[in-house]
Amino acid sequence: xxxxxxxxxxxxxxxxxxxxxxxxxxxxxxxxxxxxxxxxxxxxxxxxxxxxxxxxxxxxxxxxxxxxxxxxxxxxxxxxxxxxxxxxxxxxxxxxxxxxxxxxxxxxxxx
Amino acid sequence: xxxxxxxxxxxxxxxxxxxxxxxxxxxxxxxxxxxxxxxxxxxxxxxxxxxxxxxxxxxxxxxxxxxxxxxxxxxxxxxxxxxxxxxxxxxxxxxxxxxxxxxxxxxxxxxxxx
Lengths: 111, 114
Prior knowledge:
The structure holds two protein chains of two kinds. Chain A has strands at 4-7, 10-14, 19-25, 32-38, 44-51, 56-59, 62-67, 72-77, 86-93, 99-101, 105-110. By secondary structure, chain A is mainly β. In chain A, a hairpin with a 5-residue loop joins strand 4 and strand 5 (44-51). The mean pLDDT of chain A is 95. Chain B starts with a strand and ends with a strand. Chain B contains no helices and eleven strands. In chain B, strand 4 and strand 5 form a beta hairpin. Chain B is mostly beta strands. In chain B, the strands form two sheets. In chain B, strands 2, 4, 5, 6, 9, 10 and 11 form a seven-stranded mixed beta sheet that branches. In chain B, strands 1-3-8-7 form a four-stranded antiparallel beta sheet, with no helix packed on it. At the A-B interface, strand 4, strand 5, strand 9 and strand 10 of A face strand 5 and strand 10 of B.
């Protein structure tokens, strides 16, 4: 069974810093990987989706990379803002049908 | 609003009662997923539909859980004889027709079993 780990579990940074969130998975034969953001008590918002054939995806201040062979992905957030405070989750799928989520990284950006 | 909607947003019930949740996906989306999320954990996959067909179910989905998607539009998730361990956020997501397509999540239904 695919297992997804996210490190660190929590992160606190001052506003304006660049930061990196990590996601690792045990079965490298993935179909794709998706990064989400979740605000407290809310549903998930999709941030970036990386297909297994891709190395990275960018959207605004966010950049996600994928190293399938080593079972790792990183989410880079540039020039962090207080509005970025949320829990960030990564999810992988091997079949395109069943998705496995990590436990998330809780990010706090201090003004 | 054309996003995924879920109803109710909150449900409090007594142990042993049956509960039913509804999910309305984005109208053009053929795939619909149900997840369960407990505090401090990531969502756990429960089941998914392609149109009206339920194609995959997790082993987490015990016999007390049943999901339907009549006519391939909205979906319902029913839990019979609820237990305190069923307390969680139940999330619904939808996507287009392709495997691994980007998922769009609803706001979730928070279930509390007393």
